[in-house]
Automatic annotation (TrEMBL):
Main location: membrane
Keywords assigned: Cell outer membrane, Membrane, Signal
Annotated localization: Cell outer membrane
Protein name: Putative scaffolding protein
Signal peptide range in chain numbering: 1-21
Record GO biological process: peptidoglycan biosynthetic process
Domain of life: Bacteria
GO cellular component, one term: cell outer membrane
Family: Belongs to the MipA/OmpV family.
Short name of one Pfam family: MipA
Amino acid sequence: MLINRNIVALFALPFMASATASELSIGAGAAYNESPYRGYNENTKAIPLISYEGDTFYVRQTTLGFILSQSEKNELSLTASWMPLEFDPTDNDDYAMQQLDKRDSTAMAGVAWYHHERWGTVKASAAADVLDNSNGWVGELSVFHKMQIGRLSLTPALGVLYYDENFSDYYYGISESESRRSGLASYSAQDAWVPYVSLTAKYPIGEHVVLMASAGYSELPEEITDSPMIDRNESFTFVTGVSWRFLIHRWMSVRLVLRRNATKVVALDCSVHTGNLASESGSYG
């Protein structure tokens, strides 16, 4: 089964964290993907929808981030993520493609920076393959802006992904041994820039439930489309789902219970409370 890299990009749009509460969102959805690999039909599969925004870390779908520095306009974090891009020859309908080696999804580690302005947010990130599947790395530069229209929020995004030579060659190259088995021409993929656009819509139903839909389109460069593995010049992804939203309140109270016997203090009671979980709609999109 092939999962497109755009699915990751669609859910990379961050929530604006509250100073007094963290947001947790859990749900499920369906992802439709047009694979650029030849021999693959369009496929739809169920996916979890998970996000969490806290003061020290976040979960944005397949990315876990540990915040190193955060201000009103900037956020710098270390990231650990799952790259879902893969190629399974046993799922392919093309005989020649069935003779190729499997390309596995992989774990990535890197850094991400967000810069917030009134006109939108800029994201820059880079992450390297830590499982040595491709021995490559991926970069991303994007800009997005959340617009509120009544209860409906719309977030258009424009960006570009960078695949280094090792990453591109692992997922789109064909080795000499694969060429002999399959009859496809051998191909060494070079580093590639993949531009994309996306639009995400969210609409709250009542206080707790949020409906969402997101569509993404990417134009594949010739460094990828020249591969005999590829028979499309573009890739399209559509995701829809529903999630349940919570606010996790962090609060501290100190109780001083003074019991006096005449003028003598006989008891001092201090208590700290954290982590109460409430289901609220808040002001998030």
